[in-house]
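Field reference: "sequence" (input) and "structure" (output). Example, NAD-dependent protein deacetylase:
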Amino acid sequence: MNEVEQLRKIIGESNNIVFFGGAGVSTESGIPDFRSVDGLYHQKYDYPPETILSHTFYRRKPEEFFRFYKDKMLCLSAKPNVAHRKLAEWEKEGKLKAVITQNIDGLHQAAGSKEVLELHGSVLRNYCEDCGAFYDAEYVLHADGVPRCEKCGGPVKPDVVLYEEGLNQETLDKAVRYIREADVLIVGGTSLVVYPAAGLIDYYRGNKLILINKTPTARDQMADLVVTGSIGEIFSQL
């Protein structure tokens, strides 16, 4: 039995699946993984992406932060791909209990998933830092320079977790609970190097840990099934 057949069998027999996903789930919708540094950064930006997307940089150089953020992080025309749709389908069938994602693009919800835990927040939510007024991603995208609140003039900050900022404790606790209680844990599109998110899989207690990624991950040794390849292609075979 090959890996995809094994995966199909495991999914067919379970109704307590949790999916934990990273950037690889969204790259197939045309959203670039900002960590894969391309020539553009060196031509257009004086700092590496990790520096720009830090809390310190956001505070010190907000104009430069938003120039990068609007250019690289707001891919508002992206559509859910086969992996997003398949997960939403499993949830509807009662097989999948939750999607835990490191992505900030809202594509799981766009595909119809209801129980989505966004570890790193979402570009679709933005709040005035002074009065808390809500703004959508379009507002931020079309703002001139640093987006300002129409009500009070305060700075509008994306609801995304920047480097140096802590993850939302409630979201983390919920993610831990789902992973701990899962029968099957599928980890897809992440090389499992970004902490604290990558450490979440240590809470899994079962014996059906499935890793799906294009390249080897830091945890292949501990997995019960490793499927190498693009998550979209693999999910389209299920």
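The radius of gyration is 18 Å.
The chain has a mean pLDDT of 92.
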